Amino acid sequence: MKVAVAGCCHGALEKMYETLELLQRRHNVRPDLLLCCGDFQAVRNEADLRCMAVPAKYRHMESFYRYYSGEKKAPVLTVFIGGNHEASNHLQELPYGGWVAPNIYYLGYAGVVRFRGVRIGGISGIFKSHDYRKGHFECPPYNQQTIRSAYHVRNIEVFKLKQLKRPIDIFMSHDWPRSIYHYGNKQQLLKMKSFFRQEVESNTLGSPAASELLHHLKPTYWFSAHLHVKFAAFMQHQANSKEELPKATKFLALDKCLPHRDFLQIVDIEHDPTAGDSLEYDAEWIAVLKATNSLVNVTQSSWNVPENNGLHARWDYSATEEAIKEVLEELNHNLQIPCNFTLTAPCYDPSKPQKHMQPVHTINPQTTEFCAQFGLTDINARIQQAKEESSVRGDYEEDEEEEEMDSTGSAEEPSDYNTDNSGLSSINPDEILLDEEGGDEDLSTCSVDPSPDHPPDFSASFSDIRIMPDCMVVSSDDAMDSTNEELERSGESKQVEEKSLNERPLKRVGGNENGNSGIKIKRRNQAIYAAEDEDKPE
C-alpha cells in the first residue's frame, strides 16, 4: 500500500490534503494512509491556541477546526503523533490515543495500532532530561513551565514501548533519534544546516530516548520531523543472538509543510491484502498497557523504571502469549477501533470570536470508554483526583506558586542519560549557537539525500520510497486555487515575517555563567516562534 508521510504540519491541514488530491489528479498516486510526525496543531478554538507553546503572535487558528466541526472531512485516514507545538490541552484528553476528528487519529503519549496488517507505533513530544522521569502531572490551565513540560517525553512511555517483542513496521517520533545522522549523508546535512555542527560533532543532536527505542524496536521504517530538513539514513542493526535475523531501519526525516517545500513523501509498504481498511488496536500493545497500568504516575516526583537491579520485584512487563490471547478474547477477535469521536469543546466560529476563552481540564468520553474496556487508569481522572486531594490539604495552590523552572532547562534533575544537549544545557532545546554566517535556514529548501557510502547499496535499500522526479514534485502552492487566495496571501505575509526574524539576532534567555554575552542565539524553528521574552499570553 502507499503511505504518505508528512513532517511538521503546523495546522495547515487544508494545504496538506489539497496537495494529496493534486498528486492524485496529476500523477494518479492515491495514498491509502497519511502519517504526520508531530506539530499537527489540532486547534479547536481560542482556548486551545492559549495552550500552544509559541509566542502569541504565532497563534493562528489555521484550518483544523473545520475538520473538528464536521464542515470538512479528511479525505484519507490520518494518523499522527504530537510534537512540541500542539494544543496540549486537546491532546491531553487522549493519553492512550483517539480520534481528534473524523478520520484523524492521534496515537497518544505513546501507542501502537494496525492498518491493513501493518504495525504502526509512535511516541509524542520531545526529549528534555529534567522532565523525563516525572509523571504526567500537567493539566490546563497551564503556567509558563507546564505549557512546555506537557509535551516532554516521559520514561514510562519509553518503558512501555520497550516491552514490545513483536516486529514493528513503522515508528514515528517528533525529534530525531540521537546519532542517526551518522548513518546518512552527514556532510550534506551540515552543508544545509551548518549550525547543527556543534551538536552533531558532540553527538548531542536528537533524543537519546528515541535512540534507545530505535535500537530496541528495530522497526523497518522510522519517520521524524522537528528539525525542518529532509534527511535519509540507513541503520543496520546488530543481532542480539545467532538465531536472530539481521534487521535494518530506513530512517526518513521530513521538512515542514510550507509553500515550495517538498514536505510529503510516498512510501510503498508491504501489507496484508486480506486485512480490512479499518484502523485496529494492536493486541500486544493493549496487553502491555494492562500489565503496566500499576505504574501510572501523575505527580512531579521523579520515578525510575523497574530494572533487574535487586530493587524491584518485577522488571519484565512484556506481554505473554496468554495475555495477548486474553485481549483478543475480550474483543471477540474484533480489533477495529470504534469510530467514537465526540466533540468535547466548542468549535471556533469566525463570526463570533472569543479571544478570552479559557482552557479547562476535560475528561474525554473516548478515554473513559477505552479505560473501562481494558481496565486501565484514566490519567486525567487521576490528575483531577490528585488536585482535589491536594486542595483539601491546602498544598495544591502552593505547588502552583512554586518558583518556575526557566525555559532554558538549567534546573535539571538527574537523568537516565548522561547528557541533555551537552554544552548547551543553559539554552532552550529549540535554540542553538550560531556564528554570523548561520542565518536564513528556514527560507531555503532543505533536502538531504542518502549518502552512497552508508551502506554501498544504500539507494537500493530505499527502492520502496518514491523519490519523485522534479516533474512530479507537488508543493502546497500548486494545491491552491482561486478559492484559496486568502490562505496564499497569509502565507506570503508569514514569509515576510520570517525574513524579518532572520535579519535580527535573538538574544540569549537566561544567564550566561561564562559571560559570553556576545554569542547570538537562534532557534531551529525560528519561523514558528521568536525570542523567549516575547512568549507571553495575550
Number of domains: 1
Overall form: globular
How are the strands of the largest sheet arranged?
4-5-3-2-1-12-15
Which class best fits the helix and strand makeup? alpha/beta
Rounded to an integer in angstroms, the radius of gyration calculated over CA atoms is: 22 Å
How many beta-strand segments? 16
Task: Compute the number of helices.
Answer: 17
**Low-pLDDT windows of residues:** 397-463, 466-538
Strand content: 5-15%
The main pleated sheet reads as: 7 strands, mixed
Helix coverage percent: 25-40%
Secondary structure layout:
Blueprint: E1 2-6, H1 13-27, E2 33-36, H2 46-50, H3 64-69, E3 78-80, H4 88-92, E4 98-101, E5 104-106, E6 110-115, E7 118-123, H5 129-132, H6 146-149, H7 155-161, E8 170-173, H8 186-192, H9 197-201, H10 208-217, E9 221-224, E10 231-237, E11 247-253, E12 264-268, E13 279-281, H11 283-291, H12 321-330, H13 365-374, H14 379-393, H15 396-400, E14 431-434, H16 458-461, E15 465-466, H17 485-503, E16 520-523
Helix pairs in contact: 11-12
